[in-house]
Amino acid sequence: MESNTFKIADFNIRISFEQSEKNGMWLLPSFSNFATDEQADDYFFTLTVDDTLRPSKDRKLVRNFDTGNGDTLVYQLPDGGYQYIIRDIRNRDCCLLITNEHFTECRCALNGDWTMRSFGLNDALMLIFAFAGSFRQTMLIHASCVVYDGKGYPFTAQSGTGKSTHTSLWLKHIEGAELLNDDNPIIRILDDGLPYIYGSPWSGKTPCYRNRRARLGAVTRIDRAPQNSIEQLKPIQAFASLLPSCSSMKWDPAIYRNLCDAVTRVVETTPVCTLHCLPDEEAARLSCATLTRERR
User: Fold this and answer.
1) Are 12 and 43 in contact (CB under 8 A)?
2) For an engineered disulfide with 145, which of 3, 71, 154, 189 has Cβ 3.0 to 4.6 Å away?
3) Cα(235)–Cα(241) distance, integer angstroms
4) Which whole-number Å values give the CA distances from 192 to 264, 269, 295, in the listed order?
5) Is the four-CA dihedral 242, 75, 42, 121 of positive or negative sign?
6) What is the pLDDT of residue 136?
7) Facing residues of 46 across strands?
8) Widest pairwise Cα distance in the chain
C-alpha cells in the first residue's frame, strides 16, 4: 500500500492507495504543496483508496444534492457513518465513499478514466475535510481570498456574481495584495480563540494552491450594484451572510450545530461586511481601505 501524508490547515492527513495501476498521487496534483514527511499519532482523517470497496446495502437515502459539478447521493449507515455516490456533470459514477460518524476514518473506490477518478477523489476529500472540520472548529468556505498586510480577506458571493473578478482587481490595483485561494479557503479557529484563514488544495478553475495561513481580517459578501458602497453587518445579519457560504450537512444535527458555533465565533471576532459594487478599480480601493482599517 502506498501512503502519503499532508498538512492542510495545520492538520495532519493520510491518504493511502491500495496497489492499482489506475490510482495514485497523480490524481491529486494540487496536493503537492501540502505534502509532508511528518508522521502523526493522531490524524485529522485517513482515507484509503481501494477499488474493491463495495457499497453497503444496509443504508438509508438521506438526499441527493447538486454540487454544481454533478450530483452526490447521501446515505446514512446503521453505525452513524455515511455513504456517498459522487457523480460528475455527465451523471457518471466517479466515486463511492464510506465514512465513519466523525469522518476520521474513510474509504473510497474510484471509477472511470483519469478525469473521472481525479474529480471523484478531489470531491471526496473536500467533503471529508469539510465535515471532519466541523468537529474541530474548522470550515471550508466558498470564497476567493486575498492576503494583504498579513491578514486574509475572503470574498463570498453567489456563483457568477464576481468573487474572482473583485480579488483580481485587488491584485491589479492594491500593491502588496496576493491571492491565497480562489474558491475554497479554510477558516479555522485556533487555541487563542481567533479565526485564521488557510490556503487549500481546492481552488476551482484558478490553480492557486498555497500552503499558507493568515489572521482573518474580515469576511465580505459581494452584491452587484450601480454604485460602490460597503457596510459592516450587525451580528444576526453577519451570521446569516456567512453561514450559506460554508460547506455543511444541515440534516446532521451535530455537524450543523458545530458549524453554527464556529460561524458565531467568527462573527464575534471579525467584521462581516457587504460590498455593493461595480467590477472596477474604485470598488477594490474602497473595500481595501474599509476592511484594512484598524478596528477595536
Assistant:
1) yes
2) 154
3) 10
4) 16, 11, 19
5) negative
6) 96
7) 14, 105
8) 57
b (16+ CB within 10 A) / e for 30-57: ebeebeeeeeeeebbbbbbbbbebeeee
Cβ 214 vs Cβ 197: under 8 Å = yes
DSSP the chain: -EEEEEEETTEEEEEEE-S-SS-SGGG-GGGGGGB-----SS-SEEEEE-TT----SS-EEEEEEE-SSSEEEEEE-TTS-EEEEEE-TT--EEEEEEE-TTSSEEEEEE-SSHHHHHHHHHHHHHHHHHHHHGGGTEEEB--EEEEETTEEEEEE-STTSSHHHHHHHHHHHSTT-EEEESS--EEEE-TTS-EEEE--S--TTS------EEEE--EEEEEE-SS-EEEEPPHHHHHHHHGGGB---TTSHHHHHHHHHHHHHHHHHS-EEEEEE-SSHHHHHHHHHHHTS---
Phi-psi region of 177 (alpha: psi -120 to 50; beta: other; left: phi over 0): beta
Helices 235-242 and 253-269, axial angle in degrees (round to 10): 130
10 Å Cβ neighbour count for 290?
17
Query: What stretches in the chain show pLDDT beneath 70?
Result: 294-296
- Beta strand pairing status for 213-216 and 144-148? unpaired
Say whether pTM exceeds 0.85: yes
Which cell goes with 158?
453567489
Cα atoms in the Cβ-side hemisphere of radius 13 Å centred on 227: 1
Q: What does the pLDDT read at residue 183?
A: 94
Reported residue count of the chain is: 296
Amino acid at 4: N
With 0-12 / 13-18 / 19 or more C-beta atoms within 10 angstroms meaning exposed / middle / buried, residue 1 is: exposed
Which residues make Cβ contacts (< 8 Å) with residue 234, sequence separation at least 6? none
φ/ψ of residue 191, rounded to 5: -65, -20
